Amino acid sequence: MSYTLITANRNYSSWSLRPWVLMKALGIPFADRVEPFRATDNAAAFRAFSPTGQVPVLVDGARSVWDTLGITMYLAERHAGVWPLHEDARAFAQSAVAEMHSGFRTLRNDCPMSVGVRVRKETISAALRADIARVTELFETALQRFGGPWLGGAQFTALDAFYAPVAYRIRTYGLDVGRGQAWVEHVLAHPAMQQWEAEALAEPWRDHAHEDEIAATGTLTADYRAKG
User: Fold this and answer.
1) Could you tell me which of 167, 151, 18, 161 has the C-alpha nearest to residue 86?
2) What are the helix (H) ranges across the chain?
3) Over its length of 228 residues, how does the chain's per-residue pLDDT go in tens digits?
């Protein structure tokens, strides 16, 4: 099999990061194709390769697989290690992945992902506090139950990949996740995450709508990205 993974800007695209870091961490080879956000609405352009007009998309020969969860399930049928081996950890991982896929809307909206910036939030709403509390609970529960250092135990799995963008959000906005910070630091140090971050800081593309969204969340205190 010969995969191509189509993703968007490293700085912003949390959905792109999930399958990318999963495949990198598990050593699944793929051609890496970046289609940056070039306009406020990229759906029409992205429809050339994506049935939804969104990224990521995994191309496997004549077959296209879309949506992060769809890609993860597709890879799990073909490669070992996508889910934790232990049944209890696997059930937890699949539930937590589904929860991330469908939930945490306030965390997404109030803390947009941008790898290279640091922001001091002026206010934290009750809804955002609830999302942070749930993320903290999930991290601490996983580490306690399965022994770490990864959320599903000894090996990096889809559970870590789906929460990897949250690690960037936690760092960017200085969110407090209690003992879950140990996992945040561990995942940010992973070689695949280090590669993603280096490419994010070097890329010249800007999504101005996303930039404005970030600016509205608080005060920008640092920007490590290349000037674009």
Assistant:
1) 151
2) 14-26, 43-46, 68-76, 87-102, 105-110, 126-146, 158-173, 181-188, 191-202, 208-215
3) 699 999 999 999 999 999 999 999 999 999 999 998 876 677 777 778 878 888 999 999 999 999 999 999 999 999 999 999 999 999 999 999 999 999 999 999 999 999 999 999 989 999 999 999 999 999 999 999 999 999 999 999 999 999 999 999 999 999 999 999 999 999 999 999 999 999 999 999 888 888 899 999 999 999 999 986
Neighbours of 208 (CB within 10 A): 10
Structure tokens at 192: 């695949």
Full-prediction pTM beyond 0.85?
A: yes
Question: What are the structural domain ranges in the chain?
Answer: 3-76, 87-197
Partners of 118 in beta bridges = 222
The domain 3-76 is placed in CATH, from the list 1.10.3720.10, 3.40.50.2000, 3.40.30.10, 3.40.50.720, at 3.40.30.10
